[in-house]
Amino acid sequence: MADKKRETFGSKLGIIMATAGSALGLGNIYRFPCEAGANGGAAFLMVYLALALLIGTPLMISEFVIGRRSRSNPVGAFKRLSGARSAWPVVGYLGVVCAFLILAFYTTVAGWTLGYLGKSVAGHFGGQDLEAIQQQFSDFTNHPWLPVACQLAFLALTAVVVMRGVKDGIERWSKILMPMLLVIMVVLCVKSLTLSGAGEGLRFFFKPDFSKITGRVVLSALGQSFFSLSIGMGALITYGSYIGRRDNMVSSAVGVALADTLVAVLAGVVIFPAAFSFGIQPEAGAALAFTTLPMVFQQMTGGYFFCLIFFLLLVIATLTSTISLLEVIVAALTEELRLPRRKAALVGAAGTAAIGVLATLSFRTGSPLHIGASTVFDLLDHLTALYMMPIGGLLIVLFVGWKMKRADVMAELTNEGTLRAGLRKGILFIVRYLAPVAIAVIFFSQLLM
Ligand code: PFF
Question: At the top level of CATH, which class does the domain 12-448 belong to?
């Protein structure tokens, strides 16, 4: 009965676009360069590519299997597929908590993109040298209320879209704007590659020094691949639950994983050559993207407009990701606690705001919002990407590989036998053996060190 009322995406393109909307965001353009820069550049890239394609994509497909089979939010999904008495629904709760924690610090940077959109409209970057642009970043993140106001505005925007529901909100936005983002990234690459001294940045990003690959680098790459593909915490279980019976979720997942990886690599090709050319450290962390990109625009003919369009698209790409995070919370609250959608969106956004504001304020110089040496922001980032998502991902592949009936999993993968089984058996093999062993080894070897 409940199935009848549940919305589904309107088309295969709808699932791809909504999932791509969730996957593409700050993880690609802000976090990926940040992590690659701090973890040895090309060495990180190689490990990242291997993990995203070999482990990440099968995990994406596993989440779709759970979602579509159960037609439920992450908590309900494990209840339905394993029985209410089992311990598996804990994985669903873990996912909802993870979505909430990610949303809290993700909206910090989301707020910055809104602030930087404002700055591009006002033309704040024109004619500025590197020092001035670095100062602008530091002034903005240190401002007592502006970044908080931007964060709250972003959350409000997210809540409004989520209140309107899956099809009207999420699908429509993603379809038009994601392809535009890809185009502007390519334009930026061309500019970045023609800057003087770009070669050094390219070598940093593409010429691996394998001695740089440590256990920590591998765990960071695993965390980044999960973060970037929105996996390991139930976002794609939630979206999987909206996929129509006849849609091909394997090819959709592969398409999204490739697009997501392409955009991350493009972001690296924009940022590293430019950063080396301007003399910005690749380890600059949070400031890397927000200082390098305005510098690139400034060197371009028509830079004012490119900058404006870029930040506008970045805001939208970010919004389609925050929507998917809030949707996890809202789907769980509406289906498990029977809250009306509007109320669930408000409760989710308000709860996120309470913690998120602390993450934003923790960036201020001298802020007491530190635990040990880390800011609240870094703490939430590490807790989710390095701990919760790998554990969540491990449990999800174990569930699909070993707890669900093999026939049910194959029925989902092949749309009840109407699609070819060959390749899909290979995917199931990875889900059963390779993925759990790889995730467990990477995660536990780091934990024990
Ligand atoms: N994948 C998003 C990005 O790369 O920006 C971040 C994200 C969105 C993570 C949704 C998790 C999630 F559920």
Answer: mainly alpha
